[in-house]
Amino acid sequence: MAERAKTAAAPSATLIAHAEPKSPAAEAYRSLRTSIQFAGLDHKCRTILVTSSTPGEGKSTTVANFGVVLAQTGSRVCLIDSDLRRPTLHRVFGLGNNRGLTSALLEALPFAEVAQTTSVPGLSVLTSGPVPPNPAELVGSNRMRESLEAAVDQYDMILLDSPPLVSVSDAVALSAFTDGVVLVVQTGKVPHEVIRRAASQLHAVKGRILGVVMNAVNLKRDGYYYDYYRYYHSYYTPSEGKKGR
Ligand SMILES: Nc1ncnc2c1ncn2[C@@H]1O[C@H](COP(=O)(O)OP(=O)(O)OP(=O)(O)O)[C@@H](O)[C@H]1O
Ligand SMILES: [Mg+2]
Question: Where are the alpha helices (DSSP H) in the chain?
Fold first, then answer.
């Protein structure tokens, strides 16, 4: 496993399950862990995609803290930042991001060789790596599926972060490669119809929804959504499909 980047900053305040294990928030992530453990009784449940219908509902926060509480049980856990549109996990864990998922895929390296250890015992993070011009192709590739299947030999649980379902196809493709999906829903903000559409997109590719996390996001910045929709829209214009931010 690669060494943790020497220049890395400290983990961010987002990691409440690590910083404040007795907090109600940490307890909520432990409840999620219990629910998923029950879901895994009858079906294999080693690779889990975390996604949401719209941007900013709390996917990355959920992946990071769910990963922490899973690792706290002694499991070997790997978080994969497969949100190649807006990668976040390297910042949450204070890790470098010169190499990551995209490097592993392009160089055909096992995920465990590129993943970095974190300050949380048992928890590794495969950061996004350099953002490619073709995220959907990369995360939907056969190599992604095969690498994920192979990574299960190295880890007890693998959680994947992803872009939102309404905007781009990446998460739908990933849901077909994983054992289950956790859908994060920002409490009271997203119309039911949008959530229903997200769920049917997953069902259409036989993605198995394990559960829904109702998340109370506290957005501090005005204009967050506006910026996001504009950003994702630029990716969806076919003639500009390979445009960056
Ligand atoms: N339960 C919560 N309580 C308070 N703030 C939260 C909570 N969950 C997420 N947030 C905050 O909301 C913002 C968006 O969260 P996050 O980055 O996890 O969302 P996301 O779904 O990954 O977004 P994106 O679609 O951009 O990837 C962040 O500033 C995060 O700190
Ligand atoms: Mg995110």
Answer: 16-19, 24-39, 59-71, 89-92, 101-106, 111-114, 135-139, 142-151, 170-175, 192-204, 224-236
Residues 138-167, mean pLDDT to the nearest whole number: 97
Q: Could you give the angle at the alpha carbon of 107 between the alpha carbons of 104 and 113, nearest 5°?
A: 45
Average confidence (pLDDT) over 103-130: 98
Alpha carbon 148 to chain centroid, angstroms: 13
Phi/psi at 182 (nearest 5 deg)? -105, 125
Round to whole Å and give the CA distance between 235 and 228: 11
Ligand 1 probe mutation, 51, 61, 190, most atoms within 8 A of CB: 61
What's the rounded mean pLDDT across residues 201-230?
A: 71
End-to-end CA distance of the chain: 31
For residue 1, the CA-to-ligand 2 centroid distance in Å is 24
Rg value, the chain, Cα: 17
Q: What are the structural domains, with CATH classification, of the chain?
A: 16-240 (3.40.50.300)
Q: Is the CB of 186 under 6 A from ligand 1?
A: no
In the DSSP assignment, the letter for residue 238 is G
Using CB atoms within 10 A of its CB, is residue 207 exposed (0-12), middle (13-18) or buried (19+)? buried
